[in-house]
Amino acid sequence: MSSLSKGLAKVEVGLAWDPSGQGEPPHDLDIVAATYTTEDTSGRPEYLVHFDSRSPDGTITLNRDSKTGQGFGFDEVMTLELDRLASTYARVVIGVTIQQTSGELVFGDVGNVRVRIREDHVDLLEHGFTDIPNARSATVAEFVRDEDDTWEMREIYQGFDADPSAFADLMGGSGSS
After folding, report:
1. Which residue among 62, 84, 129, 138 is least crowded, i.e. fewest CB within 10 A of its CB?
2. Which of 43, 3, 1, 12 is nearest to 143 (CA)?
3. Is 43 strand, coil or helix?
4. Would the pTM of this model clear 0.85, i.e. be above it?
């Protein structure tokens, strides 16, 4: 039986945060997308998309990267064209990580961190990070392809005490798989 739902096609993930205070080092946060195949929906990602990268087929792109949080609105933006993603991919996990090289900066140290996921002009998810103040990385949502070949989004908000390298290995264990 076929579903009447068209599912999600093209979504935008936005990340915003307040700049660090005067005299403090800049806070650098990053959106990360991890893709998983139908063969392995929860192990190591097939590939990651983050700063200075995009998916091999151009379906997931970081359009705007901020290293400071300065600007108006969402400082970092990633576009996912789920409807163009090859059928070998069954899951995409979206996360946020702190790209800080000095010290043990956590979300509680960064002002007004928030993520928004939208399709067209409709917000699908908007979340702050106040309830995971001691985390350095977090998953926020997963996109899963169903048996009708349509994509749906599920919130999988979970904090991790992990730097960007370790976080990449942990992302697949979140959510449904």
Report:
1. 84
2. 12
3. coil
4. yes
